[in-house]
Specification:
The complex is a heterodimer of chains A (about 120) and B (about 120). Chain A is mainly β and about 120 residues long. In chain A, strands 2, 5, 6, 10, 11 and 12 form a 6-stranded mixed sheet that branches. Chain A has a 4-stranded antiparallel sheet with strand order 3-9-8-7, with no helix packed on it. In chain A, a hairpin with a 2-residue loop joins strand 7 and strand 8. Chain A is globular and about 45 Å long. In chain A, about 35% of the residues are buried. In chain B, the strands form 2 sheets. In chain B, strands 2, 4, 5, 6, 9, 10 and 11 form a 7-stranded mixed sheet that branches. Chain B has a 4-stranded antiparallel sheet with strand order 1-3-8-7, with no helix packed on it. In chain B, strand 4 and strand 5 form a beta hairpin. The chains are: A mainly beta (about 120), B mainly beta (about 120). At the A-B interface, strand 5, strand 6, strand 10 and strand 11 of A face strand 4, strand 5, strand 9 and strand 10 of B.
């Protein structure tokens, strides 16, 4: 069974600094995808960034980048130049590309607080 | 630009009551999902559907039923609500695709309390 581990229940970062949120996954499949979602206090789930298991380059989306280390099975999210609006829960999730359902398996999340 | 719409947004039930949560998407997506989110945990898959008329169990299906009679709608039913089903319920959808890189689009959630 797939398992996603986020070992940081909470993180603090100063505004304008960079922060790394950790994520490790456990899958024996060759084809899979890794996602990061943001959940602000209002509760909605916002897609941030995706990394495929066959992608050779680390994914980037604006201030978000994904530090993908396949051999270590880690997919850490890096947020550069943190803003107050980045304060939220962040979830790492995996989908298995080899099954039909394409469902997401989520980690328990990291609560990020950006301090002015 | 509705995307995925969940109704209701909030509901309080008494133990033993039944109710149906509605999820509607206007993106012509094939796949639809129901997840629940409990405090301190990530989302967990309850049931899913890979197309109209099809449904399948996820990781935590007990106590729930689902139906997908129309492509755009995915209903989650609680036949006899229990306090353990107090949670926030999210519906999501995604397009059919060979690759896993299609992100799921989520509704805003339904906060359900069972007394």
């Amino acid at each position: 069974a797939q398992k996603i581990t986020q070992t940081q229940p909470g993180m603090f970062v100063q505004e304008k600094e960079a922060v790394t949120l950790d994520c490790t996954y456990d899958t024996s499949d060759q084809s899979y995808g890794l996602f990061w979602y943001k959940q602000p206090s209002s509760g909605e789930m916002i897609f941030l960034i995706y990394q495929g298991s066959y992608d050779e380059q680390n994914a980037t989306e604006g201030r978000y980048s994904l530090n993908f280390q396949k051999a270590r099975k880690s997919a850490n999210l890096v947020i550069s130049a943190s803003q107050l609006g980045d304060s939220a829960m962040y979830f790492c999730a995996e989908t298995n590309g080899e099954t039909g359902r394409r469902a997401l398996t989520f980690g328990s999340g990291t609560r990020l607080q950006v301090q002015p | 630009n509705a995307g995925v719409t969940q109704t209701p947004k909030f509901r309080v039930l008494k133990t033993g009551q039944s109710m149906t949560l509605l999820c509607a998407q206007d993106m012509n997506h094939e796949y639809m999902y129901w997840y629940r989110q409990d405090p301190g945990m990530g989302l967990r898959l309850i049931h899913y559907s890979v197309g109209e008329g099809t449904t399948a169990k996820g990781e935590v299906p007990d106590g729930y039923n689902v139906s997908r009679l129309k492509k755009q709608n995915f209903l989650l039913g609680l036949e006899s609500a229990a306090p353990s089903q107090t949670s926030v319920y999210f519906c999501a959808s995604r397009p059919q695709g060979t690759y896993s890189n299609q992100p799921q689009h989520f509704g805003d959630g339904t906060r359900l309390s069972i007394l």
